Structures are given as C-alpha cells and as structure tokens.
Amino acid sequence: MTPTSPNIHPKFKLNGLPYASAEELLNFADGLKQQGAPYEVSVANFLEDWLSFEDHVNVSTSGSTGAPKTIQINKQHMINSALATGAYFKVGAGTKGLLCLSSDYIAGKMMLVRAMILGWDLHIVAPEKDALTEYDNDYDFVAMVPYQLYHSMDALDKVQKLIVGGGAISTDLEAQLQNKNTEVFATYGMTETITHVAVRRLNGPAKNIAFSALPDVSFSQDERGCLVIEAPKVSNDRVITNDIVSLETSRSFKWLGRIDNVINSGGVKILPEAVEIKLSSFFDVPFMIASEVDSELGERVILVLEREEQLPALNYHEAMASLLPYERPKKIYTLSKFPYTETGKIKRHDVLEVLKKYK
Question: What's the CA gap between 154 and 169, in Å, rounded?
C-alpha cells in the first residue's frame, strides 16, 4: 500500500483505524471539528496544517519563561525529529502510542507527527491528569508531563516506554519509579528544538543523572555557562539557551538551572531549581524558590507554597535542615493558587507579581 501523501506512513492508525491517505485524514479532521471535544478540535486543526501545501506550521510556545509567542517550524525538521525519536527509542511501524497532551503545543503535535511518519497506531484521549488510568489499553510509547506521571503511578504497567517533559522531575517522583518495569525517560528540549534533543533514563540499570543527545545533536557552552545546541536536522541555527549546565561531553550534560532565576545573595549565587530538588521530598504541594530585595544581602531567598491555610502544618524544620545555610529561605509565603501556563508550568514571574500586591 502506498500513501498518497509522503507525510503519512501506510501503517498509520488513529484509535485503531487506518488512514493511509491525506483525503481520508482530512475527512476525519473535518468530522472532529464539527463534533469533537476541544482537545479533538486541536488535533483536527493540526492535521489540516500538516496536510496543507505550506512547508511549515505555526507553533505557540508555552510561556513559562516569558510571554507566549508563535514561531514557524519547518515540516521537514519535524519529520527529522520524529525519525530521530524512532531510532533512539526503537519505536517503528506498529508501535501503539498514547496522545494525552494538548495538540495546541509542540509536544502534542509531535506525537501526531511521529505516528504519521513512523506508522504508529495512536490512541487519542483528553489531556487530563489521569489519562492513563481511564482506559485498559496497553501502550508501547507515551509522552506525559510530570503532573500526569504523578497521577499515573498505579497504571504504569500499561506502558513499555514513557517520556516525561515540560517540567522538573522531583526526587520523590523519581524515587517512585525505581520499582517500575516501565522504561521512563526525562526529556530536554523546547519548541525551538521541536521537543526533545536529549534524554536521561530515570529508572532501571541504565539510570543516569546526565542527559544524552539524540542522533545528530551536539552541545557546547557559552561564556555564561549556558547550553548551546547544535541540531542541524531540526534547526537551521544554533540554539543558545538560558539553561546553566555542567557539560560532560559534547553529547551529554547535567542540567543545573536557568540563568534567569539565579539568586545573588550576599555574593553567593544560588540556583533555585537546585534548592527545589532538595526540598521536593518534603512538600506534597506545589512550591517554588525565588528571591526578594534585601538591604543587607542584595537578594534573599524566599519559599512560596501553593496551599490553603487550613491544611495540616508542614515539617519545615526537617526540610530546612536539608539545605546549606545560604540556601535556606529567609521568608516563607503561601498563595491559595499559583498562576500556571496552559502546559502546567508555574509562572514564576507572575507568582512574584502577586506577592508584591500583598506586601
């Protein structure tokens, strides 16, 4: 069987039904737009974009590190990314995948592209926290955000390989994975790199604390100590990030934090993300480490938690004892609700703006 579109594999299926031609897929998309739920309409919109005569698609960034923006991504680069994922994870034709992310953003779009290019049978469900637990199906390959992974622990035996991105993996969440047979990988990437360009195994014998590059990707650092990505098959230009890393080799690195968030307290530079990792096993509520102006130190470390005041008290003493003296928050604030991006990331800047209103 030969597909009528070069961008559709002859074995491609959605929810078990084959779609080997652009015409069939466009008819399916049209039906979703007329009768589908909002997440299905997002799928339909992308399918139409993918099958258009344009050589690119417009993709929105999440807005976690700045205002959301729309960028153009070359379709051939997306195909190259899908092929690299297929090669690295050995997920070729016949793979059963689960799309439980929003197709409004690059991670969800790329699950569709991988399915069409590699010949998967892709099951599409609402991008809810418990998407995996809602159905009895088994899957070869699934992509999630940490929040979904947290709520899917009891159902992970349904999945052979799972990638998780879009946020930091807490030490507690990583610890829960150690007795799971599912191969779980943290991913590193962004919209500009068409999702992941590096992964690290979170459990099993191959567990690693460093990220390793996907095929045809290499790394270096700029003068700030931030990661620079060379990925010619998915980006025409070098991608200069604001992520501070410890470069292991030109193909691997350890992620330390974002330079945008560095706190300079009394001349000591503190990475909030590193402190958050230390505290993650002590708090079962969303939280963040940040700073505020201090007349003596310049900046002082603060802890902000999302919680209602009537909840049971947290064990702050034990949590603070896990930190170095200069890492310990000088003030603790609580908010009843954090502002989040549509992809579930805390809007750090917005949290601090909310705090200013109450000072």
Answer: 18
Tens of pLDDT, residue by residue over 225-283, are: 999 999 999 999 999 999 999 999 999 999 999 999 999 999 999 999 999 988 988 88
DSSP for 27-88 reads: HHHHHHHHH--HHHHHHHHHHHHHTSS-SEEEEE---SSSS--EEEEEHHHHHHHHHHHHHH
Pair type for strands 139-144 and 268-270 = unpaired
Structure tokens at 163: 């990638």
Highest mean pLDDT among 18-27, 118-127, 283-292, 313-322: 118-127
Q: What is the DSSP letter of 285?
A: S
Give the global pTM.
0.86
DSSP 234: T
How many Å apart are CA 178 and CA 308, to the nearest integer? 32
- Residue that is written with structure tokens 């992308």 in the block: 46
φ/ψ bin of 137: left (φ > 0), alpha (ψ from -120 to 50), beta (otherwise) = beta
